[in-house]
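Table 4 source record.
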Amino acid sequence: MNGYYMSVVCDYLFPGMSQWVAVQLNSQSNDTPIREIANRALSHFKLKNLWEIKVYDFPTWGISACIRSIFKCFKRFVLLKKIQSELSQYKPINTQPHEAMEKLASKLKVLKTNRPDLNFDSHKCARFLLAHLNSDKDIRIHKNESPFPKGLHIMKNANVYISVPKGKIGQGGNKKVKKVWDLNKQVWVARITDKFGDYVITKMEVDVMKRLKGKAIQPVLDETFYRKKTGRPSLAIFQPIGLSLWDCIKENKVECDRKKNQIAIDLLVGLTRIHKNGSHGDIKPQNLLIDQNGDANFIDFGSYNPHRAKNYLMAKHVGTSHYLSPDYLLLSSEQLVGLDADETRIKADIWALGVTFHQLFYGTTPPWASYKKSHEEVWASIANLKEPHLDDALLASRPEFEPLIRSMLELDPTKRPSAEDLLERFSSLQPFLLTS
């Protein structure tokens, strides 16, 4: 009984069944017994006795034998009609054409090209994906629950994110960042999850980034709630991958002044939008990402405070010690929730960005923010800052940027310019800067 003959019989039994069988025939090796495929069909379509339906050639030896054969065929015809009637209430489940499986397999081969060390069967994984796509909810598949080497996320919008071994690319205070493969776009993206189960803050960050979306704000590609193997709920967000400004400075990847100034312009565009709605609260090179197009974006909005908000973050100091301004650091908890708290936080953002730009344009932190000092020493240095607090000789080596950096690092917060003013001043420099 070959595949064509079986398809003809199946089409007579129930439209669409032969399509399912064709997928099975094409996806199996040549030595797969046809009876095994038929048994799968029985299970898939909830049948009981397909193999009782056979077509006999009429024998040529006698009238009685022919009558018996006709009688047998009539009984089988009645059985066929009965099964056909019962089948009318069932529909094939997730029948997918052979072309769809081949398309998925070809996409998976691109992943194997990017990571030759990965060992998995592309067709087997494609069949697994076909069985789980088009779900009405997001699905998290853990390691050892699929033919893939690691876990994966299958989204209800049909996006698929595949984890890989040795995919860790960073971590923060309460987050883990891993590189995953976006199967549809055929690119690497970052998967960010909470480290200690505090997914509420992560969800708040996602909402902020969606509300502020635009230039210089890192976009959110997808988000999904899921349960870890331990049963603990968690939130994963997927964002474009990039290199932190910290790594760019440390590895000297941004050399020309025009490119550095363009990064400053990008960040000031983003900060202007942020300050219309609130304050970032933790600006530093580690929280600024240079994407694959060379554009700078803000990430990590865990310390963000909207204007006139009264959440638990407002009554305590947030941010990284090396980038805290003295006026913000010396405020009490009561002053942090006072009427002037919004403006104080905005001026603190300008100071933190000034320290960041000092690193970007001069290659080092200001004297009080040295990473060779402990957090306690840095806090003490900031609390006791007095004029002159900057290295005049170092700043004078880049006269085009000196007045801008000085204005951002004014000890008197009222003298610090707004992000909008700084954007105008940095933009005016761009035509006069060298490209090499």
